[in-house]
Specification:
mainly beta, 4-stranded mixed β-sheet, 53 residues
């Protein structure tokens, strides 16, 4: 699955960008998620802004 298709195309791939250890995604509200699957990631934080994998 290509990350651009997740969250209706609003999330971008940030693989290689600096981020906290263990963070897999940056949520739209500024929090980080360590979820390893796209399903439900940042669901209570306004969706995913950036994927780090």
């Amino acid at each position: 699955m290509h990350h651009a298709t997740i969250d209706e195309g609003t999330a971008r791939c940030g693989a290689g960008e600096p981020h906290p250890a263990g963070a897999m995604a940056l949520c739209h509200d500024g929090t980080y998620s360590e979820s390893t699957t796209p399903s439900g990631t940042c669901s209570h934080h306004n969706g995913v802004e950036v994927w780090y994998y």
